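Aim 2 progress update. The chain analyzed this quarter is reproduced below.
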Amino acid sequence: MQDRPDAGGRKIRDRAKARATAGSPAGGPSARLAAAQKAIGNFLRATRASQRLTQQQVATLTRKSPWQLSRAAISAIERGQNFPGMEAMLALSHVLYIDPKELVERARMSTVVPVDVTGVSYEDLERRAEQYFWAGDFRQALSIYDAILEKIALEGGIEDETAARRIARLEIRRATALKRAGALLSAIATAERAIALAALYPDIQADAYVVLADLQCHRGHLPLASDAVRRALELAPRAGPQTRGWAHIVDGRVRFLSGHYEEARAAFLDARRCAEESGDRQHLTHIDGNVGVCWMHLGDLVKAREWLDRALEHARDNSQPALEASWLVEVGKVALGTDDFGEADRLALAALRIARPREHMLTVFRAEWLRHRVAQRQGAAADRPRLEALRKLLLQLDQHEGIEEIQEFKQHLLRARSGGAEVDP
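Predicted C-alpha cells:
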C-alpha cells in the first residue's frame, strides 16, 4: 500500500528530507559501493514515480516476467540498502522500460549529492539545477532533477497536467546532463522516455527529439540522428524560436558529420537568428563555436578563429567553463593548422586546467590528443604515459563514435596494432 501523508503533511516532509539529504559516502570500496547503491536506488525511484507507478504495482508487474520481486525488495533497492542483483535488474528494467546498461552507467557515475527539497519551490530547484548544469557540474544537476521527480511523487500531484509536462521536461534535462557526463546510453534511453511522456505535448516532444538527434550524432549514428532531427523540425513551429534554434543546431551537426560543411554553416546561422529572436544567449556559445568549426573544415582559418574567439567570449560572459574548455581545444586545432605549435599546446593546457577529469572526460581526451598531435608534428617521440591515459579514457568514451578525436585515436590504435608507422591525421 502506498504511504499517505498525515493531515499536516509531516510524513511527506520527513520522508523527503531523509531521502534527499542522504549524503555521498566518501572513502574506500565499501563507500563507493554504498554510493552506487544509493545512486541506482534514487534513479529507479524517480523513474517509477515518473511513470505513476507504486512499488506494489511494480512488484505485481514483475510477476508477469521470469524475474519476480516483492514490494519489500523493491523498497530496499530504492532506499539504497540493497544492490540489485542480475534478476532484480532484469525485472525492473523490463517493467520500467530501462536498458540494463543504463543501470550500469548509473553505478559507474555513482555520486549522490545531498539535495533538501523541503520548503523549496520547483522553480528554485530548476534554477539551481540549471546553474549547476551551465557551470559544468552535471552530476549535481542530475541529483537535483531526480530530487524534483521525488518531490512531485511525494506531493501526490503526479496526475496533474502541469506535473506531467514538468516530468517530461525533466527527462529532457536529465538526458542532456547524462550526455555531458558521458553516459550516452542512459541519455538515449531517457530522451526516448521523454518523447513517450510528451506524446500529448508537441512543443515538449520537439525538444526531446532535438536531444535524441544530438545524442545519435555523438554515437555516429547519422541515419537515426537525421530521422530524429527531421521530427524535431516538423514539431518545432508548435514550440517557439528557442526550440527552432536548437533544432537547427542539431541539423547543422548532422550535416557537418555528413561532410556537408557549407550546409552545416547555413543551418548554424539559422540557429543564430532564432537564438537572437528568443534572447537565448546561452546557446550562442554553441552556435558561434560550431560556425567556427565549419569554417575550419572549409579551409578558412582566419574566419574560424574569429568565430571561435566569439564563442569563447560568450562562454566566459555566461559562466560556461565546460564550453570554454571545449572551444579552447578547437582554437588549438586552428593554431596547429597554422603550424603555431606553441600556441596550440598552450591552448590545450588551458582547456585541461578548466576541464574536470570526471565531469568533462571528452574534453580532457580531446585536449590530450591535441597535445599528442602537437608533439608529433614537432618530431618528438611518442609520449607513452599520455597514450596510455588516452587508452583508459577511451574505455569510458567508446560510445562517442561520432567525435573526430575518438575516430582519430582509434585509427592510431589500429596502426599501432598492425605495426604501421603513425602519421598525422
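Confidence is low (pLDDT under 50) at residues 1-27. The first helix runs from residue 10 to 20. These observations will guide the mutagenesis experiments scheduled for the next reporting period.
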